[in-house]
Amino acid sequence: MKNSIIALSMITTIGLAITGCKKDDDLVDVPQPVVNEPEIITSMFLMLTDSATSTPFDTVAFRDLDGDGANAPVQWDTLRLNANTTYMMNVLLLNEIPTPADTISNEVAEEANDHQFFFNIAGVSLTHTYLDQDTNTPPLPLGLVNKIRTGAAGTGTFQVVLKHQPGIKDGQQTTGDSDVDVTFQTIIQ
């Protein structure tokens, strides 16, 4: 009887080991959630065109080639504009860490429903108008293509903030995380 109990115990253990290790073909792999990470942006270029003549006016740059690293920006231009003038302004974003550089503006355009630029003007006579939008209902501004209009001469600042708002875009600057936040010294002459 003792041998029967040992044999039954061994058969049960082997049976459990075989069924416990057997793969269940009915189980479906659960995909990992998609993580929408903020973009790495090392460089921002504001490309300005005089709207009256359609000729390029200036390109203003901010370049911090190590991104959030310890090194200081290698280029941080002043935005210099003529008084009482309207400009078309395109924003170009790059990640210059890899070679060749990644054009982050393309990713922002593709993910327009999750991004919005905000432009904060202080101490200078300057107005801003969005010329592009996303496909949300109702559509919300994006900010890669813009129009700015200067008034009288003066000095101040022009802050450009790109907010990353995956699934929560609401047109408010306080929503989401900042992918980039650069303030340009601004002179209207």
Task: Using brief descriptors, characterize the structure shown.
Immunoglobulin-like; 189 residues; 11 strands; mainly beta; 14% helix; 2 helices; 40% strand; 4-stranded mixed β-sheet
Pattern of helices and strands: HEEEEEEHEEEEE
Classification by helices and strands = mainly beta
| Helix fraction bin | 10-25%
Number of domains: 1
Q: Whole-number average pLDDT?
A: 88
Report how far apart the termini are: 105 Å
**Main sheet properties:** 7 strands, antiparallel
Radius of gyration computed on alpha carbons: 28 Å
| Strand percentage | 35-45%
CATH architecture: Sandwich
Annotation field: number of helices? 2
| Weakly predicted, low-confidence segments | none
**Global geometry:** globular
Q: Could you name the CATH topology?
A: Immunoglobulin-like
Q: Tell me the quaternary state.
A: single chain
Question: Count of DSSP E strands?
Answer: 11
CATH hierarchy, class: Mainly Beta
What does this structure look like?
- The protein contains 2 helices and 11 strands.
- The radius of gyration is 28 Å and the shape is globular.
- It has a single domain, classed as Immunoglobulin-like (Sandwich), CATH 2.60.40.
- It is mainly β.
- Helices cover about 15% and strands about 40% of the residues.
- The termini are far apart.
- The longest helix is centred in the first third of the chain and has 20 residues, at about 1-20.
- Strands 1, 2, 3, 5, 6, 8 and 9 form a 7-stranded antiparallel beta sheet that branches. A 4-stranded mixed beta sheet has the order 4-11-10-7, with no helix packed on it.
